[in-house]
Write a structure and sequence with these properties.
The protein is 73% helix and 1% strand. The chain is an all-alpha fold. Strand 1 and strand 2 form a beta hairpin. Helix 1 packs antiparallel against helix 6, helix 5 runs antiparallel to helix 9 and helix 7 runs parallel beside helix 11.
Length: 378
């Protein structure tokens, strides 16, 4: 049976990260790739972020304007945190990706390949939906100021501080293009960083599926002991891979949980203030869908890891264990006892990412939205 290529499904995802300077060949070092990445971040992304931070201090007394600015600022801060940990742990993540090519992580039969592909197809569906929402947000963010004739002066895609007059030409046009490029970079790479992290969780879940199938087909015979030892080694390797992935983005998960409800609530508030079927209305609709999808994929695939890891002891019981030798039975019993505690993907080992977390975030976002509506009416 041919070796399974785990990176084939996420090839486009990794290619975009590579083109954006977020996926070097081995690690970040002093070379043209790292230099160009640093140059782009320092000239496009960082100035955009700083200009919005400065602008916030000028609009603290205006709730509506502040809400229209802070949701985008929080998104960029969140993206900054994620790319920091992605770059910081790049060497470790590269080593983790190499574990996928080991023999223990390879599907053993066509049935296992089919199960793995089904999980990866689910990831691809969510990735495509997430990408479409973000592309829609970028497009409508780019054109909505041109179509919005309310107010005086020329509108930019977002409110930000500039050390020069942006109402004159060509300063206005250059600033407009500069902001669009900055937001397009942030948005599309936010999609691909998030989806890459989600894909790591999918890989963990797939490995538990493979392990469970191997345990169910554990048969009496001379090679039963060897098969059980392989299952034990496989389980240890899965835990190692999961620990690397979780620890690489532990703090990023925590920040994600903290700000997701705020971003979603603010976006929903902005959407409620838009005239239906305008460019601004479609922009905030796309942005809202993207923010919900972003958190959903984290919680869904993390929840799948928890459920599939909980299936391991049950899969062992489903094997033909009654006819195994006493020595193998003892080893299997020890393995079952060792796998009683399911695996959790957590944020700072405090909050577990699960469907319950997702529902809690949506409830909190709705509370923020209600609070903002009441404050606006008063």
């Amino acid at each position: 049976m041919d070796r399974y290529d785990w990176t084939l499904t996420i090839k486009l995802n990794l290619s975009i990260l590579k083109l954006s300077g977020l996926w070097p060949r081995d690690r970040y070092k002093i070379d043209p790739y790292t230099t160009l990445t640093a140059l782009f971040l320092l000239t496009v992304f960082i100035p955009n972020l700083l200009s919005q931070i400065i602008k916030v201090f000028f609009i603290l007394d205006d709730l509506t304007t502040l809400a229209a600015t802070i949701y985008l600022l929080l998104t960029e801060i969140l993206f900054t945190v994620k790319i920091f940990f992605l770059m910081k742990n790049m060497t470790t993540l590269k080593e983790a990706m190499k574990l996928l090519d080991t023999d223990l992580f390879q599907p053993k039969n066509p049935e296992q390949v089919a199960v793995v592909q089904l999980n990866l197809d689910s990831w691809r569906t969510i990735y495509n939906s997430f990408t479409m929402s973000c592309v829609g947000a970028i497009v409508f963010l780019s054109i909505s100021p041109l179509l919005d004739k309310s107010g005086s002066g020329k509108n930019l895609p977002s409110l930000s501080w500039s050390p020069y007059n942006t109402q004159t030409s060509p300063a206005y046009e250059l600033t407009y293009i500069y902001q669009v490029i900055g937001y397009a970079y942030t948005c599309m790479n936010h999609v691909n960083v998030d989806s890459f992290i989600a894909a790591l969780n999918v890989f963990i879940g797939c490995q538990f599926d493979i392990l469970c199938d191997n345990l169910r087909h554990l048969q009496p015979g001379d090679d039963a002991q060897e098969s059980l030892v392989k299952c034990i080694k496989h389980h240890k390797l899965i835990l190692k891979f999961a620990t690397i992935c979780n620890e690489s983005f532990n703090l990023a998960f925590f920040v994600q949980l903290l700000v997701s409800a705020t971003i979603t609530g603010l976006t929903l508030f902005q959407l409620s203030t838009m005239v239906p079927f305008t460019a601004g209305f479609f922009y905030f609709t796309s942005y809202y869908l993207a923010s919900v999808t972003q958190m959903f994929q984290y919680c869904w695939f993390s929840n799948e890891v928890h459920l599939k890891s909980a299936n391991v002891p049950c899969a062992a019981f489903e094997s033909d264990w009654t006819d195994l030798s006493l020595e193998v039975k003892k080893g299997l019993l020890f393995f079952i006892m060792r796998t009683q505690k399911p695996l959790h993907i957590s944020a700072l080992n405090v909050f577990h990412l699960s469907l319950e977390s997702f529902v809690a975030i949506l409830k909190t976002a709705w509370s923020y939205y209600t609070l903002l509506r009441q404050a606006e009416e008063e």
